Amino acid sequence: MIAEPDGPEDRLRRFATIWSRAVFPVTSTSLTRPEFEEQLLPLARRLSEVLLAHGFDADEARQVGAALIDAHCTDPEALTRSLDCVDAYLALYCGADGPQDELRMRSSRIQHAMAAGFAQALRERTLAEQEAIAQAALRAQGVVAQALHASEARFRAVFEGAAIGVGIADLEGNILQVNGALLRMFGGSEQAVRGRNVREWTHPEDAPQTWRLYEELVRGEREHYHVEKAFNRSDGTVLWTNLTVSLLRDADGEPQYQLALMEDTTERRLLNLRLRYEATHDALTGLPNRTLFFERLEKALSAGEGQRFGLCYLDLDGFKTINDSLGHSAGDRLLVEVADRLQSCATAPGEMVARLGGDEFVALTTGPDTQREVDDLADRIMNALVTPISIDGRALMVRGSIGIVEGPAGERTPAEVLRSADITMYRAKSAGGNRSELADPEADARAITRHGLTTALPAALDRNEFFIEYQPLVHLGDGSVRGAEALVRWLHPQHGVLGPDRFIPLAEHTGLIVPLGRWVLEESIRQAREWRERYGDDTAAGPLRINVNLSPCQLTHPGLVQDTVEILERTGVAPEALCLEVTESALIGADDDLLKPLRRLAEMGVDIALDDFGTGYSNLANLRRLPVSILKLDRSFTQSMQQFPADPVDLKIVEGIVSLAHSLDLAVTVEGVETGAQAEQLRILGCDTAQGWYYARPGPPERLHDLALVDATG
């Protein structure tokens, strides 16, 4: 048994050993196999560094491919074997500790760069040989009269010994001489080459300028030209070459012959096609990947006037659950089956299906009538997913959400189209999934704005873009101002003043609500201290209190109690001057661990208000175990009281809630009071305090100063 390498250098040397054993038999070198291995070891180390580098250095990999030519590995088989070794063993031995999928992708790019470097170096070497042959031919022509025999011998040696194909023809195109290398390129039969006319070798894939350049050369208008050209062999196969044709003149400068030099590039072309396929197709499903899809989408969007495009962006619903429960192998087989079904949905001209990654697929259709075609394509995709997929004996139901984007070519970039499709797909998913949605520019704009606000939130807090407005809390009995609720606002540089409904959900989603909430708490308590320092106990009902909202994320943060205590102590404000408002929905089903911080704050003297009461469908019996001292009745219960007479059912409901709250020693605050009749009705029903536009809209702290001063002076 052979022990596996136990260190990076050992693994690197093992890779070099495997590489040398594969390539040595097809290499023209005087070195022994161990000496050849030592020559490959530095190249292996360079490949390892490219594989593991932070950024991909294609030039370094190309230099390794070129170095194979310097090591006399000029046989195309040597390149093939080298690439096979890199594909099979480079990531295994030189990147064993890294993510294999990423390393395999990097390895594929290394192979492509090595092939390019190898081809470039081989071409430069071949061109050098070509130049030598051409020079020899010209020298031979120039001294024909003086030393015909000697020059003919030298030319024949170069002509027959060259590794590239060489042929000479007259100006009419009749082939006069060819060397052995050219005969081997065409299958080894002299009859297939000698005596033919070059004009017979047309091919459907000839470039448009190929024969124009040829005619210019035989007329003496150019000295040489270089093209890539295909030839049909007698056995039906295709020979691809790099073809250089030069004009040979006589002693008087008149055109006399044409000299053709051919380099066989068939294997290299097939290799490039294979690498191109691997680079543009998904390894798991065989579908076009993101790279090829963007090429096709960019082409579709740059089509001429009158052309349109339609795109379906599909994301499977619940695929993560399948991966987590059945394993990634089952998930991969599911993706392969989904890919096959999707491929069968896009068979018409101008249609394609691609896999972007994970469980995300796209289908593209192009043409003048994609408005109807893209809807049909989306329906076919949804229908293709209806039939369950059998994996390991389990019938799995597969559903998907599709975002559809359709429009004229030339108006949007590929990135903009895909972003719109992605946003629309998530809109379909948030609506319950298993459906398709058509892109809506307004919905896209809202989603983009939400994303922009999300990314700008952290910097906004650092730049002090947030400020607080205060809405007074008024006692319904005597009309005195008892305090105010702190309401945070965002002064956005582009969008102006934003209310909390625009950014608080985003802050909760990103976790920024904790530092933002701490800032609001500290600023509000500092304002309460300023009110006390300015007015003392001169207001009608004593010191003004401050109400601060707590989000569910703040409730679960372990530093809530400590932060509150530190802020109160630092500002010198008594706990009784603070009321923390918690929404009813945040406390539905709350366990003792969640309630423990609130109980500690309540024991200190901080009031806890149950905000939006009546919207959470909570059990009223739970009120007894919650550490709350105030119920804030949601405005939905009192909207009917804005008109007279009020709905008697609403009156009974509010009366019952107030009676229940008072029996539990809880005060009742009402939100959304907008009319005097509404305020009077709530006073009669026994509500304690109220807030709303009837009294004052949220505003700067100075406005509350004025209201409090009016109460104090009568």
Oligomerization category of the chains in this entry: single chain
Rounded radius of gyration (Å):
40 Å
Strand order within the widest sheet? 13-14-16-17-18-19-20-21
Could you tell me the strand content as a percent range? 15-25%
> What count of helical segments does DSSP give?
24
| Structural class by SSE content | alpha/beta
Describe the structure.
The protein is α/β, with parallel strands linked by helices and 714 residues long. 50% of the residues lie in helices and 20% in strands. The chain has 24 helices and 21 strands. The chain has an eight-stranded mixed beta barrel, surrounded by four helices. A hairpin with a 5-residue loop joins strand 4 (238-249) and strand 5 (255-264). It is elongated, with a radius of gyration of 40 Å. The mean pLDDT is 85.
Give the structure's gist in a few sentences.
The protein is an alpha/beta fold and 714 residues long.
Write the layout of secondary structure elements.
Layout: H1 8-23, H2 33-52, H3 58-70, H4 76-94, H5 100-142, H6 144-161, E1 165-170, E2 175-178, H7 180-185, H8 210-218, E3 224-232, E4 238-249, E5 255-264, H9 266-280, H10 290-301, E6 308-317, H11 319-326, H12 328-345, E7 351-357, E8 360-367, H13 370-384, E9 389-391, E10 394-396, E11 399-408, H14 414-430, E12 435-438, H15 441-462, E13 466-475, E14 481-492, E15 496-498, H16 500-510, H17 513-535, E16 545-550, H18 552-556, H19 560-571, E17 578-583, H20 584-587, H21 592-604, E18 607-613, E19 630-633, H22 648-663, E20 667-670, H23 676-684, E21 689-690, H24 701-713
Parallel strand pairs: 11-12, 14-16, 16-17, 17-18, 18-19, 19-20, 20-21
Antiparallel strand pairs: 1-2, 1-5, 3-4, 4-5, 6-8, 6-11, 7-8, 9-10, 13-14, 13-21, 14-15
Helix pairs in contact: 1-2, 1-4, 2-3, 2-5, 3-5, 4-5, 5-6, 5-9, 11-12, 12-13, 15-16, 17-19
